[in-house]
Design brief:
Blueprint: H1 3-10, H2 20-33, E1 40-44, H3 50-55, E2 61-66, H4 69-78, E3 84-88, E4 102-108, H5 118-127, E5 128-139, H6 141-145, E6 151-154, E7 157-160, H7 168-177, E8 180-188, E9 200-207
Parallel strand pairs: 1-2, 1-4, 2-3, 4-5
Antiparallel strand pairs: 5-9, 6-7, 8-9
Length: 213
C-alpha cells in the first residue's frame, strides 16, 4: 500500500491501537539517547510527535519531518512550540528542509520504507556535525525474515504497507562509507525475552571528526 496514503489513514488510530513495534522503539530511543547531548535534532518520521515531545526535553531546536500530512496534523496538535519545525517531505528527494548542521539525526521506523539506504547516508553526512550522532530504530531483520511488515486494520480490512528487506550490513556499510563510526548496536525483545526473536534493532552512529592534513 502507498506509504503516504497508508500513514494518512493510520493517523487516526496510530496513537491508540496496539503496536508493539512503536512502543518498543520509543523505549529504545529514550534509552539510547538519554546520555547523548544534543541541541539541534533532525527527526525523520516524526509521525504524531510522540518521540518529538521527548526529544524536545533535550533539544533547543528540532526539524521534524514526515511524509504524511495527517500524521503531521496530529503532531502539530500535540506540540505547539516555536522550537519545533514540522515539515512534510519525501526524504528520498533532496533535503531542502535540512539546516547545514545538526547534533543528532533520528530515524524511527522509517527506513524499512526506503529501498536504497546509501543515498540516505550520503545526504545525512552533509547535515550532521563532525562528532554528531545518528540514531536508527527499525524493525529487526529477523522479524522481516519471518514476513513481518508494518500493517494496521482499517474499515477496508487489514492494510500492509510497502516495506523493503534490510540486513544489518545494509545499515552499517553505507554508514561507514559516508564517514560514520558505529557506537552501539542493540536488540530489543518483546517482554525482554531474549529466547524470542528480537523485534527492534537499534543503531547509534557517530560522525567522524574531519582529519587535518
Amino acid at each position: 500500500m502507498d506509504i503516504q496514503k497508508s500513514y494518512d489513514s493510520w493517523s487516526e488510530q496510530y496513537d491508540t491501537n496496539i503496536n508493539k513495534s512503536r512502543d518498543l522503539e520509543a523505549r529504545s530511543l529514550r534509552e539510547t539517547l538519554t546520555n547523548i547531548p544534543f541541541d539541534t535534532c533532525l527527526e525523520m518520521g516524526c509521525g504524531t510527535g510522540k518521540n518529538t515531545a521527548w526529544l524536545l526535553e533535550k533539544a533547543k531546536q528540532i526539524t521534524a519531518v514526515d511524509f504524511s500530512d495527517q500524521m503531521l496534523t496530529k503532531a502539530r496538535e500535540r506540540i505547539i512550540a516555536p522550537r519545533v519545525d514540522f515539515i512534510q517531505a519525501d526524504i528520498t528527494q533532496p533535503w531542502a528542509f535540512a539546516k547545514p548542521s545538526y547534533d543528532l539525526a533520528v530515524f524511527s521506523l522509517v527506513l524499512e520504507h526506503i529501498q536504497h539506504l546509501d543515498d540516505i547516508f550520503c545526504k545525512l553526512s552533509s547535515v550532521i556535525k563532525p562528532g554528531g550522532y545518528c540514531y536508527i530504530g527499525e524493525l529487526h531483520p529477523a522479524k522481516q525474515y519471518n514476513g513481518t511488515k508494518a500493517r494496521f486494520d482499517s474499515k477496508e480490512g487489514q492494510q500492509t504497507l510497502t516495506c523493503f528487506m534490510h540486513h544489518l550490513s545494509d545499515f552499517t556499510t553505507p554508514a561507514l562509507h559516508h564517514g560514520f563510526s558505529i557506537e552501539t548496536i542493540r536488540e530489543y525483545f518483546d517482554e525482554d525475552d531474549r529466547t524470542s526473536i528480537p523485534r527492534i534493532l537499534t543503531l547509534l552512529f557517530k560522525k567522524q571528526e574531519s582529519s587535518l592534513t
